[in-house]
Specification:
Blueprint: H1 3-18, H2 21-33, H3 39-49, H4 55-80, H5 91-122, H6 129-135, H7 139-166, H8 173-199
Helix pairs in contact: 1-4, 1-7, 2-8, 4-5, 5-7, 7-8
Length: 202
């Protein structure tokens, strides 16, 4: 892969990680958070989403294709990037390593989540409160989902920091430090929403 082509592929990968994949993650977690209001509140929210015109087309264009590209190209980056954790044990090197690790894990987690929900819907099941309730009834599956949620919220939060740097928005050390604090707070808040949502099905 030529340097110029790889540069543009990486830029596209970075951009799609924020828009639309990152925005969809935030929306998805807040949608699931309606489960804290009970079964009826969650089913009403998901039922409303099912009424979106051309839903399948929207899902493929806005969700599946961007996630597929971001995930697969992210795996390529993860296995070709050089981690310097042992040699340079800095905070940012650890964040770099965790970004790659969570990215690879999320490819597995998202594929499984889609299988348990959207594919089951295509086979005739209803995506509703009772479906998720049945899934997380297994404590191992609940743990798997919690790890998946935390991986997703970290990957997005740290990805925002990387996006700001790689796109030249935060260039000075001070602005990058401030961005670190802001994205860490974002990670904590979004994680609370996500974990509270999945625990609402227990």
């Amino acid at each position: 892969m030529s340097k110029n082509r790889e540069f543009y592929w990486r830029r596209l990968h970075s951009l799609l990680g924020i828009i639309p994949v990152g925005l969809f993650l935030v929306f998805h977690l807040f949608m699931n958070f309606t489960a804290t209001g009970g079964e009826e509140a969650y089913n009403t929210a998901t039922g409303f989403m099912e009424k979106i015109p051309f839903l399948i087309l929207v899902e493929w264009i806005v969700i599946y294709i961007p996630i597929l590209f971001h995930g697969l190209y992210g795996v390529y980056i993860a296995f070709t990037a050089t981690n310097n954790v042992k040699r340079f044990g800095t905070f940012r090197n650890w964040m770099f390593a965790l970004q790659r690790f969570t990215g690879v894990f999320l490819v597995i987690f998202i594929a499984w989540h889609i299988f348990q929900t959207r594919i089951q819907k295509a086979l005739g099941a209803e995506v509703e409160f009772s479906m998720m309730e049945e899934i997380v009834r297994n404590p191992w599956m609940l743990a798997f989902y919690i790890v998946g949620i935390l991986s997703a919220t970290f990957h997005l939060s740290n990805g925002i920091w990387s996006f700001l740097v790689s796109w030249g928005i935060t260039q000075s050390p001070k602005s990058q430090k401030i961005a670190s604090y802001v994205t860490m707070v974002f990670f904590v808040l979004l994680s609370i929403v996500g974990v509270a949502a999945i625990l609402a099905f227990v």
